[in-house]
Design a protein that fits this description.
- The structure is a single chain.
- The chain is built from eleven helices and eight strands.
- It is an alpha/beta fold.
- The strands form two sheets. The chain has a six-stranded parallel sheet with strand order 4-3-5-6-7-8, sandwiched between helices. It has a two-stranded antiparallel sheet with strand order 1-2.
- Helix 2 crosses helix 3 and helix 4 crosses helix 5.
- Bound molecules: D-malate.
- The site of D-malate has 6 residues, from loops.
């Protein structure tokens, strides 16, 4: 898929200059989860560079993107991503990938801007809305972030993010994820929690999302059970499900080879010239 190009573009007309330009690779927009950042996609950015042009924003209030005053909602996050694509001159359709909350944003983007979506990669996510108990837990977490800081959120959530084996065998990865989470601002945490609490149920829209889709899920996800991925893949018109052994909620970091292999096969199947 990687192509070298040649062009008579040197200062003297005789020079046939050889070059690579990732602009002719399939564009993939990767949307991170909560409370994470573009650092989530480190192993995709490095390992899939030969096949994809990868765009990895930090959503507002996360990573290096400044917070704005809440409220935030999924439509705001989705529109932010589309504005970024516009800025990059990517006015056609791209492959939209999202993990967990990033998947909620991806589904919203698909609903609001279907002409911008050439395919979906949905990791560790679900289509349904929060239950009443889930909504109350979001408000509780937002109050904790305000009163005790983002550290309290991070320490409460981190043990549930990774599979038990990952946490035991990859201490550097645990620290990497902790550092990424700690970069989230209090407003980012509060805004994302409210956006997740108020998100709509996308289940009824899934049959209408008529683009190729890859659904990926860690077999040991403690936050979102595998059955949610089965429901997603079963309701989308053209989806494949890959369950990744030995991975929890962050399969792309915990088992990057298995995750990247599945993405590579998907991109080659549907988007190779
Ligand atoms: C995420 O990882 O983005 C969130 O945990 C998803 C959620 O809480 O629903």
């Amino acid at each position: 898929m990687t192509e070298r190009n040649e062009a008579k573009t040197g200062r003297d007309d005789a020079l046939l200059m050889s070059y690579e330009d990732s602009a002719n690779r399939v564009p993939v927009l990767w949307i991170h989860g909560y409370p994470l950042s573009s650092m989530l996609w480190e192993f995709q950015v490095t390992e899939l560079a030969d096949i994809a042009r990868q765009i990895t924003p930090d959503l507002r209030g996360h990573g290096r993107t400044e917070p704005t005053a809440p409220p935030y909602d999924m439509a705001l996050f989705a529109d932010d991503c589309v504005r970024l694509l516009d800025h990059l001159g990517l006015e056609g359709a791209v492959v939209v990938g999202g993990l967990s909350m990033g998947g909620y944003v991806a589904l919203d983007l698909c609903r609001r801007h279907p002409q911008r979506v050439a395919g979906l990669i949905l990791a560790s996510t679900r289509a349904g809305a929060d239950t009443e108990a889930g909504k109350a837990a979001r408000d509780q977490a937002a109050a904790t972030a305000k009163d005790q800081g983002v550290e309290a959120i991070v320490e409460g959530m981190l043990p549930k993010l990774l599979a038990p084996g990952t946490a035991a065998e990859q201490p550097d990865l645990v620290e990497y994820v902790r550092g990424m989470m700690l970069e989230t601002s209090v407003d980012g945490v509060g805004g994302a929690l409210a956006a997740m609490r108020d998100r709509v149920d996308s289940t009824g829209d899934l049959p209408g999302f008529d683009v190729p889709a890859l659904v990926l899920h860690g077999a040991q996800d403690q936050l979102i059970p595998v059955v949610e991925a089965e429901l997603l893949a079963g309701s989308l018109p053209d989806a494949e499900l890959v369950v990744i052994p030995g991975a929890g909620h962050l399969p792309n970091l915990e088992q990057p080879d298995a995750f990247n292999d599945a993405v590579r096969v998907f991109l080659e199947r549907y988007y190779e010239d």
